[in-house]
């Protein structure tokens, strides 16, 4: 029965702009053909679609073929749309529930999107790094973030070509006006899959542990109109501040205090301008790339500002 | 935005000439911890400022304990900043610094009424760091841009801080445009004399 409902949802989607239908209406007509008259599902679907085409006074080619349209992941901005994608599996995560077969990120030239496939759909498993044509996936929205759900009707075709995964990172710039607590030389919980930052040697999950040193900076960029929080990981922190992990550990040992590291780092970066690029995670932009901005450039060009001022 | 996590106040860019003309402060709620805003004459509220300029003088003006006063000069005037025991990092930065030096200050506006009834405005620093000439140049251009933004929006309908500025100050905003022009010209002149500003290390 799940099959019929999925078909009904697709047909409903095809005609929702043209006819006043409910998914239940469609499913009832399909069920009647399939269950009472023993019509194969595909034939029942064709028949139901034809009758709705008649009702709406439309030709078949005025309606999306399978209900799904070829789409780029970056263009997905509506809930419950049926789309076909050509994507590479950019990342696979551990499912946190038995009902989920696979969860991860799919990417194409426009960026990446989260996907979920459910155990009940009994689909073949996607492999990380492999490119696929996926037809009939459904878009989903949660708190403004879009994802796609693979389902029983989804067909998965492995592609010979490799799909390029595009950059969907954000770019922010401004004066670095503050670094937040938990920046500098920190210790993380060493337990498997736990990377929590320790507070006074304690992990909020695993209690007292022997932590592993790491470098991190949580900073605030401010352009005078808005603030944006930014995180620099170990590598980016070393590049930003010129202080690497070994030097940081030495500094902390000499001072018998880890906070000297964060203070020295703050001295070197607070009050300067930076442009930072990277993906957004919650409140933070993760700094994949960054550069210091100095002097005047296209963003703040003295010549054009003078012209602007004089025309006021 | 969740109500339980107050968003961080943005650091306004304002030249000393405008900053020192400000005097009116206000809160937008009765809550004791509500942010205190300084009303800028070009029509914006400022709970925090970001200033880059030349530290020209510093002096410990404290009696019982250290209380550092710094003069920070931009192309239009002088910011005064005071740091004592409750701003230990900024106070220690001022203690260590040798003027003249380019410094960046992030801080909160503070007003003080003198005996003759006039109001002095200063910056209570959250941080003071040394920067290079190129960072200072960028600040001048950026502050000019933000000042022009405010002047352009000054006559917009529904600009409540512009309306407030008219009521509280009645100062001609053209003065601040002229200050921005002068600041931008000072960048140009310096460029012609020295070429590109040196990049900080």
Explain the overall architecture.
Chain A: Keywords: DNA-binding. Chain A: One of its GO terms (molecular function) is DNA binding. The complex is a heterodimer of chains A (312) and B (201). Helix content of chain A is 27%, strand content 34%. Chain B has 201 residues and is α+β, with helices and mostly antiparallel strands. In chain B, the strands form 2 sheets. In chain B, strands 1, 5, 6, 7, 8 and 9 form a 6-stranded mixed beta sheet that branches. A 3-stranded antiparallel beta sheet of chain B has the order 2-3-4. In chain B, helix 3 runs antiparallel to helix 5. Chains A and B meet through strand 8, helix 6 and helix 7 of A and strand 1, strand 5, strand 8, strand 9 and helix 3 of B.
Please provide a brief summary of the model:
With 312 residues, chain A is an alpha+beta fold.
Alpha-beta content class of chain A:
alpha+beta
The radius of gyration computed from the alpha-carbon positions of chain B, rounded to a whole number of angstroms, is 17 Å
E-strand count of chain B: 9
Q: How many individual helices of chain A? A: 7
Based on Cα principal axes, name the global outline of chain B.
globular
CATH superfamily of chain B: Nucleic acid-binding proteins
How does CATH name the architecture of the largest domain in chain A? Answer: Beta Barrel
Helix residue percentage of chain B: 25-40%
Please give the CATH class of chain B. Answer: Mainly Beta
CATH superfamily of the largest domain in chain A: Nucleic acid-binding proteins
Summed up, the helix count of chain B is 5
Distance between the termini of chain B: 38 Å
CATH fold descriptor of the largest domain in chain A: OB fold (Dihydrolipoamide Acetyltransferase, E2P)
Q: Low-confidence stretches of chain A at least 5 residues in length (pLDDT < 50)?
A: none
**From the helix content, strand content and strand pairing of chain B, which structural class follows?**
alpha+beta
Based on DSSP secondary structure assignment, what is the total number of beta strands of chain A? 17
């Amino acid at each position: 029965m799940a099959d019929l409902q999925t078909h009904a949802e697709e047909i409903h989607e095809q005609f929702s702009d043209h006819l006043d239908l409910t998914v239940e209406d469609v499913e009832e007509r399909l069920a009647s053909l399939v269950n009472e008259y023993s019509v194969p599902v595909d034939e029942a679907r064709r028949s139901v679609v034809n009758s709705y085409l008649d009702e709406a006074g439309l030709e078949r080619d005025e309606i999306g073929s399978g209900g799904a349209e070829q789409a780029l992941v970056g263009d997905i901005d509506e809930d419950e749309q049926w789309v076909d994608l050509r994507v590479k599996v950019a990342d696979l995560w551990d499912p946190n529930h038995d009902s989920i077969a696979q969860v991860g990120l799919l990417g194409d030239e426009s960026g990446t999107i989260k996907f979920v496939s459910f155990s009940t759909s009994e689909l073949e498993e996607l492999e990380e790094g492999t490119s696929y044509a996926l037809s009939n996936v459904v878009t989903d929205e949660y708190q403004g973030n879009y994802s796609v759900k693979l389902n029983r009707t989804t067909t998965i075709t492995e592609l010979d070509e490799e799909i390029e995964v595009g950059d969907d990172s954000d770019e922010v710039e401004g004066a670095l006006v503050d670094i937040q607590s938990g920046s500098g030389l920190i210790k993380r919980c060493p337990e498997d899959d736990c990377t929590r930052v320790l507070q006074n040697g304690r992990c909020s999950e695993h209690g007292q542990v022997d932590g592993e040193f790491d470098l991190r900076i949580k900073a605030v960029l401010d352009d005078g109109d808005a603030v944006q929080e930014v995180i620099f990981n170990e590598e980016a922190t070393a590049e930003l501040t010129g202080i690497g992990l070994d030097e940081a550990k030495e500094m902390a040992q000499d001072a018998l205090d880890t906070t000297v590291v964060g203070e020295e780092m703050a001295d070197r970066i607070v009050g300067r301008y930076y442009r930072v690029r990277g993906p957004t995670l919650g409140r933070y932009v993760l700094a994949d790339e960054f550069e210091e901005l100095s002097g005047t450039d296209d963003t703040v060009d003295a010549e054009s500002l003078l012209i602007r001022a004089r025309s006021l | 935005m969740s109500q339980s996590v107050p968003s961080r106040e943005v650091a306004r860019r304002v030249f000393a000439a405008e900053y020192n003309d400000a005097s009116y402060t206000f809160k937008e709620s009765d809550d004791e911890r509500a942010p205190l805003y300084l009303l800028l004459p070009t029509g914006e509220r400022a709970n925090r400022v970001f200033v880059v300029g030349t530290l020209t003088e510093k002096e410990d003006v404290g009696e019982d304990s250290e209380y550092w006063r710094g003069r920070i000069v931009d192309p239009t005037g002088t910011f005064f900043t005071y740091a004592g025991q409750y701003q230990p990092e900024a106070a220690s930065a001022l203690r260590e610094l040798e003027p003249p030096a380019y410094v960046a200050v992030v801080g909160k506006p503070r007003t003080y009424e003198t005996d003759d009834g006039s109001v002095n405005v200063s910056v209570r620093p959250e941080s003071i760091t040394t920067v290079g000439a190129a960072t200072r140049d960028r600040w001048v251009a950026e502050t000019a841009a933000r000042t022009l933004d405010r002047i352009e929006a000054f006559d917009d309908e529904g600009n409540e801080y512009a309306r407030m500025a008219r009521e509280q100050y009645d100062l001609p905003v053209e003065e601040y445009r002229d200050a921005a022009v002068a600041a931008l010209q000072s960048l140009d002149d310096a460029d012609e004399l020295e070429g590109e500003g040196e990049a900080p290390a």
